[in-house]
Amino acid sequence: MNQQPLPNVLPNRAAQNLLRAVEQGQWIPVHMIPELARQMQPMLIPGAEDLQLLHLMLDLVQTTSTYMSYYLSNHAMFECPTFYSTSVYYIYKLALKRRQNPVYLDTLAVVVKRRLRDLFPHAAYLPNLPSLQQIIISNHFYEGGVQGIYGFQKERAWNRFEKVLGEAYSYIGTYHQCHGTTPNVDFLYQFAILYTKYNGGVGREQFHNAACNYLRTNLPQVGQEFFRQLSHGFQNTLTLQDMAVTFA
Fold it and tell me: In terms of domain of life, where is this protein from (predicted)?
């Protein structure tokens, strides 16, 4: 896939500054992401991802870089989180459903890497992030339809569920400890959509209950309001048809 740069001209100076920050991998306040996405709408490449998908990508950049920064702060060796790959794949499938080309999605790994380098300019180690093509190949395996490996697909899908849930536990707990509040966990909702499509052995309600119960049990320091919102988020996400994806 040919990588194309993000547009560098926006209607006003504030939007230009925000876009420049994104291109350089700098921190964008969460409350400013919707405005940035809105300002970019007139300049989007024709046929590329729409405003809503761009918003999802900017959220994922923030979440991934924040998650990885906790490890880098402690000089720990680690790999790219599984939720990054599953969320990229979800956005990719949503783009295909809307007949949009994954232009900006193809540059996302570069944006995250720049953000980490900006945060930790002297870090001796920065993990590699998979390319969009690598993510597509890796995740396409779970879509089913191949005779003889269905049981293995289910087992691998369950392993991914456990990884993403473990990453959510680590991220929510560390974020709460550092900031006294809870983070955006849209990657959990996106994975829920994929996982129920993967037919990983659990239905929608089972996935929802398993995820919420695990996190509530293992994060007693987090207020119950967060888990009520999490439960509501799962219910909404799994019933919104415009956010659903279809598999070949």
Answer: Eukaryota
The answer to whether the beta carbons of residues 227 and 234 sit under 8 Å apart is no
User: What region does 194 belong to: left with phi over 0, alpha with psi -120 to 50, or beta?
Assistant: alpha
Which long-range CB contacts under 8 A does 231-240 form with residues at least 24 apart? 233/185, 233/188, 233/189, 234/188, 234/189, 234/192, 234/207, 234/208, 235/208, 237/189, 237/190, 237/192, 237/193, 238/192, 238/193, 238/196, 238/204, 238/208
* 130-141 pLDDT, tens digit each: 999 999 998 887
pLDDT tens-digit map of 65-92:
999 999 888 877 678 999 999 999 999 9
DSSP-derived secondary structure letter, 124: S
Domain boundaries, the chain: 13-243
